[in-house]
Design the sequence.
C-alpha cells in the first residue's frame, strides 16, 4: 500500500480512538487526571504519595484518570482501584517504558498522543501533577496553555511536592513573567499541595459555589477541544 493510502486510512484509526474514548469516558464524571513519571519505583515516596492521593480522591467520589503505565501512573490507578470510584488507564503504545498496569477498571489504548491528551482534559475536573520528566512537563504545559487561552474550562491544576517544582516555578516568575511572555495572573492557574487532604480541599474549595458539572458555556468550549 502506498504512503498516501496509508495516511488516508490513518484518519479512520484516529477517529476510532476518539469515538472509543468518548463512548467509554462520558459517564465517569467527576474525574481527576493524575500525571507523573513512569520511572518512579514502588518504594519511592512519590509513588506512595500518588497512591494515597488517588485513594482519597476515589473515596471522595472522583474517578481517577492516569496514563495506565508504570511508576506514578500505576500508583494512581492502584489507589483508585482500591477506592470506591473508577480507575481509568489511558495507555499509549511506546517503544519502551510503557506497559499496562493491572489496576484499571477501564483501559483504553492509544497510538496517538494527541487523541490521548484530549481524553485527559475533556473529562477532568482537576489535574494533579506529581514529579516527572518530559512527558509530565508536556501534559502540564498543555493544560496551562489550554486554560490560559480559554480553549478549555478553568479547573484546579495541582502540583505535588513543592520542592521538586520550585525551580520551574521560579523560572516562570524570574524569566517568563519578567520577559512579559506571561501575565502575573497566569501564575495563579496552579497551586502547590503536599498531602491528600490538601488536594481534596483545593478541589472542593474551587467548586464550592458552582458544582462539578460544566456550565452550558463550558460544555461548548469542551466540544471544541
Sequence:
Amino acid at each position: 500500500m502506498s504512503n498516501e493510502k496509508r495516511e488516508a486510512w490513518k484518519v479512520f484509526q484516529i477517529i476510532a480512538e476518539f469515538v472509543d474514548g468518548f463512548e467509554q469516558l462520558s459517564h465517569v464524571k467527576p474525574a481527576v487526571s493524575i500525571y507523573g513519571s513512569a520511572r518512579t519505583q514502588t518504594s519511592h515516596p512519590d509513588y506512595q504519595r500518588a497512591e494515597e492521593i488517588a485513594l482519597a480522591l476515589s473515596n471522595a467520589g472522583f474517578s481517577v484518570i492516569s496514563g495506565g503505565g508504570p511508576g506514578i501512573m500505576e500508583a494512581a490507578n492502584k489507589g483508585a482501584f482500591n477506592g470506591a470510584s473508577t480507575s481509568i488507564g489511558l495507555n499509549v503504545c511506546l517503544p519502551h517504558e510503557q506497559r499496562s498496569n493491572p489496576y484499571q477498571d477501564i483501559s483504553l489504548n492509544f497510538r496517538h498522543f494527541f487523541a490521548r491528551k484530549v481524553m485527559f482534559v475533556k473529562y477532568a475536573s482537576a489535574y494533579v501533577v506529581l514529579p516527572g520528566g518530559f512527558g509530565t512537563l508536556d501534559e502540564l504545559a498543555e493544560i496551562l496553555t489550554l486554560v490560559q487561552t480559554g480553549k478549555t474550562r478553568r479547573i484546579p491544576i495541582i502540583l505535588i511536592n513543592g520542592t521538586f517544582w520550585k525551580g520551574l516555578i521560579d523560572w516562570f516568575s524570574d524569566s517568563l513573567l519578567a520577559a512579559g511572555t506571561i501575565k502575573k495572573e497566569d501564575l495563579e492557574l496552579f497551586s502547590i499541595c503536599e498531602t491528600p487532604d490538601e488536594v481534596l480541599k483545593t478541589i472542593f474549595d474551587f467548586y464550592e459555589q458552582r458544582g462539578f458539572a460544566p456550565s452550558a458555556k463550558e460544555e461548548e468550549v469542551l466540544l471544541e477541544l
Notes: The two ends are 32 Å apart (CA to CA).
